[in-house]
Amino acid sequence: MPHDLIIPAHPAPPSQPLPHPLALTRAGLSGFPSPAQDYEGRTLDLNERLVKHPSATFFMSVTGDSMVRLGIHEGDLLLVDRAIDPRPGHILVALVDGEIIVKRYELLGNRPHLCSGNPRYAPIPLDNLDCQVWGVVRSVIHEYPV
Prior knowledge:
Blueprint: E1 6-8, E2 18-19, E3 43-44, H1 46-50, E4 57-61, E5 77-81, E6 91-96, E7 99-108, E8 111-115, E9 124-125, E10 131-141
Antiparallel strand pairs: 1-4, 2-3, 4-5, 5-10, 6-7, 6-10, 7-8, 8-9
GO molecular function: DNA-directed DNA polymerase activity
Protein name: Translesion error-prone DNA polymerase V autoproteolytic subunit
């Protein structure tokens, strides 16, 4: 994963609230609520929702297919937070032996490993590797073709 795919987050992102209707679903009832019922005045700011530590957050584009079963695809944009302490189960961006990778941190037999979301790639044991964690993935932005 090339370094030019790293985009720092704005240290003080401007507020940009967008319309955010309250989505209601009804199971087992006939009839539908009015689409405008809970729409008025409700907004959502993605910076406020997703960026918890602005000065420690960056965006990164994904290349490759090693995380497809975990919902991370080629071309997706990751929101990565350096302020979160990595724990097993977290998806990390790390520099391993000079290569930037995205993998899930797991303990296998009480030994730390970086695991992919694709069975074609074996877990990477971290025992004897030079590994520098860059941050924990907080969000994945996946765009659909239009």
